[in-house]
Specification:
The structure holds two protein chains of two kinds.
Chain A lengths: L2 E5 L2 E5 L4 E8 L3 E9 L6 E6 L5 E4 L2 E5 L3 E6 L8 E9 L7 E3 L3 E6 L1
Parallel strand pairs in A: 2-11
Antiparallel strand pairs in A: 1-3, 3-8, 4-5, 4-9, 6-7, 7-8, 9-10, 9-11
Chain B lengths: L4 E3 L2 E4 L5 E6 L6 E7 L5 E8 L14 E5 L5 E5 L8 E8 L8 E2 L3 E5 L1
Parallel strand pairs in B: 2-10
Antiparallel strand pairs in B: 1-3, 3-7, 4-5, 4-8, 6-7, 8-9, 8-10
Classes of the chains: A mainly beta, B mainly beta.
């Protein structure tokens, strides 16, 4: 069974204090790993897709990396507007493209 | 439309009643998904439509749940004889690519079963 575990469950940072969120996964043949951001009362918003170990992607203050067992979302010099829940999901080989397995998310709060 | 639209945004119902949730995907998107998000839990896959292919229903939790999609447009998720454990946010998403790398989610329907 595919599994995704995110840590920590919640993270409080001061503005400018860099940190990382972790996503550990177990999947039968990784087809893709996804990061989404979710604001309260809204649906998730796509951030990144990573396909193979060693791959990295960046967007503004966010950088996602991937190994064979986990992914990290690095946040550099965060701002209060980065506060949100960050979701990690995997897509397994041999399943339909629409079927993602999500982790429970990390709630990030950035204080000014 | 500008994004994925879901209605209603909130639905309160009594145990045992049937409910219908609606999703309008982004125009031109061939793929449509339904996910469920229970409080404090990750999103759970329910069902996936891709063009004219048979839908992947492997995530539907029981035969009380069903979904339909008309062509490449509107989809409805129906829950019959609702139970309290059905209370959750039901999220719809659509995608334009075959590999579905990027899902666009609606804001969801908050379902509360009393």
């Amino acid at each position: 069974e595919d599994q995704v575990t995110q840590s920590p469950e919640a993270l409080r940072l001061q503005e400018g204090e860099s940190s990382s969120l972790n996503c550990s996964y177990t999947v039968s043949g990784l087809r893709g790993l996804f990061w989404y951001r979710q604001d309260p009362g809204k649906g998730p918003e796509f951030l990144f897709t990573l396909y193979s170990a060693g791959e990295e992607k960046e967007k503004e203050r966010l950088k996602a990396t991937l190994t064979k067992k986990e992914s990290f979302l690095h946040i550099t010099a965060p701002k209060p507007e980065d506060s949100a829940t960050y979701l990690c999901a995997v897509q397994a080989g041999g399943t339909s493209y629409g079927k993602l397995t999500f982790g429970q998310g990390t709630i990030l709060t950035v204080h000014p | 439309g500008a994004g994925v639209s879901q209605s209603p945004s909130n639905k309160v119902t009594e145990k045992g009643k049937d409910v219908e949730l609606r999703c309008d995907p982004i125009s031109g998107h061939t793929a449509l998904y339904w996910y469920r998000q229970r409080l404090g839990q990750g999103l759970e896959f329910l069902i996936y439509f891709q063009g004219n292919s048979a839908p992947d229903k492997s995530g539907l939790p029981s035969d009380r749940f069903s979904a339909e999609r008309t062509g490449e447009s509107v989809s409805t998720l129906t829950i019959q004889r609702t139970q309290q454990e059905d209370s959750a946010v039901y999220l719809c998403a659509s995608s334009s690519t075959v590999r579905n790398e990027k899902l666009f989610f609606g804001s969801g329907t908050q379902l509360s079963v009393l």
